[in-house]
Amino acid sequence: LSAYLSGPPRGTPEQAAKLKLTLADLCASTGEGEKAKTYLREIGDAVPTALQAEAKLRLARLALAEGDVNEAVKLFQSADMLPNLPATTHAVVRYETGRGLILLNNLPAAREYLLKVADSPTPAGAAANVRLMELTARDPDPSGGVAYLETALRGVKAPGEWNNPHVQLPELRQACESFIATCKKAGKHAIA
Length: 192
Hints:
The chain is mostly helical. The chain contains ten helices and no strands.
């Protein structure tokens, strides 16, 4: 695959971009992050914005894995500025930006990004509501977090029904337990 991509151009830029995404995934899975970044950075403006966004998302996730949260947030924000993104991709980009801003302790900006995706009927929208619940738990009156939790869990009737790639079930359980403890501590026993 690497030899194929390094040779003379064959196929469209879109086809080459898809192959580079695949090759980047292979490199990342074998611990070759720098090679993965090289392939992802080669995906340019000649391809649809969804593929450009996917490359930026993967670069940002590699930066997060390396502990470079600032770089990750810049890449997420760069992807957010791409025009005509599919709604599901835009939701993921905004959720990931908000999550990165939480890691940077820029809570007002994180809240702003998460609110942009909170109404999305996507896994990223549900995850954004979980993060908003966690942020609300830091407020003097955490009771507003209940609405976020209800929105996140809309349609979920049993733990096995929660299937979200952004917030795994153990993390959701921990977030809920922490929120309940915060409400009790704030004297909001009816909410808890």
